[in-house]
Amino acid sequence: MIVGVPREIKRDEYRVAMLPSGVEDLTQAGHEVLIEAGAGLGSGISDQEYAAAGATITAAHADIFQNAELIVKVKEPLESEWPLLRAGTTLFTYFHFAADQKLTLNVLESKINAVAYETLEGKARDLPLLTPMSEVAGRMSIQQGARFLERPQEGRGILLGGVPGVEPAHIAIFGGGVVGKNAARIAAGFQADVVILDISIDRLRYLEDIMPPNVNTLFSDRHNIREQLKKADLVIGGVLIPGAKAPHLVTSQDLKLMKPGAVVIDVCIDQGGCFETSRPTTHSEPTYIVDGIVHYCVTNMPGAVGRTSTYALCNVTFPYIRRIADMGLFAASQQDPGLAKAVNMVSGRLTNRAVADTFGIEYREFSGSSMA
């Protein structure tokens, strides 16, 4: 099979979808790998390293889409790339369709096979291709929150850990999943006062057991959310409904409860965001202010630490890439129901129920090689 890896063109995106080790593995198995020139530079990987591993380096972005049967990316195809999508080609990447109707309709119209990292299920019904980037984003959320709480960044002028005689920052984390757990660990290390809110009592019990004493848990309901907004210097939004749009936990009216200069980090902005006032931002222009509250809503947070994120991502994606290359998408999906869950579109038909429900589009069930 011909596998193509284009250079990411999303603003401030420095990740790449394959390592030289993956190229070597595929070429030794008899596959051909096309790498766009410069694709790995943001992650510190040169064209020479890819060529030495057996890749063919191509200068034109369009050549990857024109010649590859399986295209592997990190982020969703941008509008300039939609005309390059060829019917029957398989594109394996993060799509986050539920947050973008225009993307959904145009990719559907292209009749490609859209395989989404974020909906692939592991044997434990986890999301193994989303997990490493959620770990990165959760840890980065505290790093960025600490920065934007500084007064020159229009924050409250708060040091997360405080100092003797001065109380630390209060951090509220909405969602106790991978993002929330990682954010809480880093925040705890800063000696901040941390609260995690979640709707799962079992998850809260687990977090209570593993977290240090400066991390507490609360059941997530409207009363507790509002009370935490009043206290918080920093709020992290990390809720997830797999494949679906994130719920708005904080309304525009709720912002009036918060202290001027408080910071919100919406990690779920890729899925639409969990603050009503959230809108996508970039690493170059990461924040804006609504009612005195600093909003950080960068859609590709892990992209800023391309070296770390690329290796973390490729460690988990490559086994699936190899399987699809060896067997073809349909045979591989038939063998692995978790991979079948990642198939969001097949030849112009929408096969993800959450996305179909979000936009009112006809849903067709996909089970490997067939659709109902």
Give an overview of the whole structure.
- By secondary structure, the chain is of the alpha/beta class.
- It folds into 2 domains: 2-127 and 305-359, NAD(P)-binding Rossmann-like Domain (Rossmann fold), CATH 3.40.50; 133-304, NAD(P)-binding Rossmann-like Domain (Rossmann fold, 3-Layer(aba) Sandwich).
- It is 33% helix and 16% strand.
- Strands 3-2-1-4-5-6-14-15 form an 8-stranded mixed beta sheet, sandwiched between helices.
- A hairpin with a 2-residue loop joins strand 12 (287-290) and strand 13.
- Helix 5 (131-148) packs across helix 6 (178-189) and helix 9 (306-327) packs across helix 10 (329-335).
List the helices and strands and how they pair.
Layout: E1 2-5, H1 20-28, E2 32-36, H2 47-52, E3 56-58, H3 61-67, E4 70-72, E5 90-93, H4 101-110, E6 113-116, H5 131-148, E7 170-174, H6 178-189, E8 193-198, H7 201-210, E9 215-219, H8 222-231, E10 234-237, E11 263-266, E12 287-290, E13 293-296, H9 306-327, H10 329-335, H11 337-342, E14 343-346, E15 349-350, H12 353-359
Helix pairs in contact: 5-6, 9-10
